[in-house]
């Protein structure tokens, strides 16, 4: 009901709409309309009301409640089931539990604030209230376990394309799952799975995205490393980025890539990923737990493995590493 009400206001931007007209379109009483209006006000929407005129939306909230995301959602299955939390420790943990309990493919967990978000290699991902996107998608792909890392690369492409669509900003991908904007980290992607040795039960893809943080939100220790869409879009002087719309676009971009991937394989996605990559075609340090390989990043295989040619001409297959680009080359 709330998403229908928001769509009515969206279709009549700046206009007053009578309570009678709203009640007819929603198929409910005028008392019920008033209750829904009050709930929207509690969610941060500014709504005017005037006798004999009705209601008018003055300012939208920048929330990511279920009804706010679903008003923009155009996917077939991804995000049609949404679980929202105002604050939670980790959307990944919740998605894992939902998947174990039988949640269908496409179920998405979203949080307005995440207090113990996870990054790669056990790192922490901070997500302060009202500024970020923290979400986890549950997938059940008919894939062998060794193919699931490719889904991380799909997610990276989907996020880059959704950001460009919403803000006009062109991001870059650092293998395997970091998204950078003007050299600073903007997005982290974490892919985990529940599987037997030869069978995937579920894949959980977590996405953490810095959206509306200001420079004050980044401490001195990370200010030179991290940024947000709002900072890069207009120096934080203009309107905040609509997080709900951006989530809906990420889900749509990913769903389209996912369906293409399941039908035609990674070879149709690979050129897209490489077109956004800053790792490919440069000299890099690939830092692994027990080794560091320096060389030229030639590209990725159809399995998403990074190919690095060292100075002796030997090509290494890099499955997991922290990548540092050599600025001298």
Automatic annotation (TrEMBL):
Domain of life: Bacteria
InterPro entries assigned to the protein according to its UniProt record, in alphabetical order: aa-tRNA-synth_II/BPL/LPL, Bifunct_BirA, Biotin_CoA_COase_ligase, BPL_C, BPL_LPL_catalytic, HTH_11, Transcriptional_repressor_C, WH-like_DNA-bd_sf
Residues in BPL/LPL catalytic domain copies: 67-262
Keyword Lipid metabolism tagged: no
Transmembrane intervals: none
Class of this enzyme: ligase
EC number: 6.3.4.15
GO cellular component: cytoplasm
Keywords: ATP-binding, Biotin, DNA-binding, Ligase, Nucleotide-binding, Repressor, Transcription, Transcription regulation
One record GO biological process: protein lipoylation
Residue spans binding DNA: 19-38
MF-aspect GO terms: ATP binding; biotin--[biotin carboxyl-carrier protein] ligase activity; DNA binding; transferase activity
Positions with a binding annotation for biotin: 114, 185
Keyword field contains Translocase: no
PROSITE patterns according to UniProt: BPL_LPL_CATALYTIC
Recorded catalytic activity of this chain's protein: biotin + L-lysyl-[protein] + ATP = N(6)-biotinyl-L-lysyl-[protein] + AMP + diphosphate + H(+)
Pfam families on file: BPL_C, BPL_LplA_LipB, HTH_11
Described function: Acts both as a biotin--[acetyl-CoA-carboxylase] ligase and a repressor.
Family of this protein: Belongs to the biotin--protein ligase family.
Record NCBIfam families: birA_ligase
PANTHER family (alphabetical): BIOTIN PROTEIN LIGASE (PTHR12835), BIOTIN--PROTEIN LIGASE (PTHR12835:SF5)
Protein name in the entry: Bifunctional ligase/repressor BirA
Species this chain originates from: Alkalihalophilus pseudofirmus (strain ATCC BAA-2126 / JCM 17055 / OF4) (Bacillus pseudofirmus)
Gene: birA
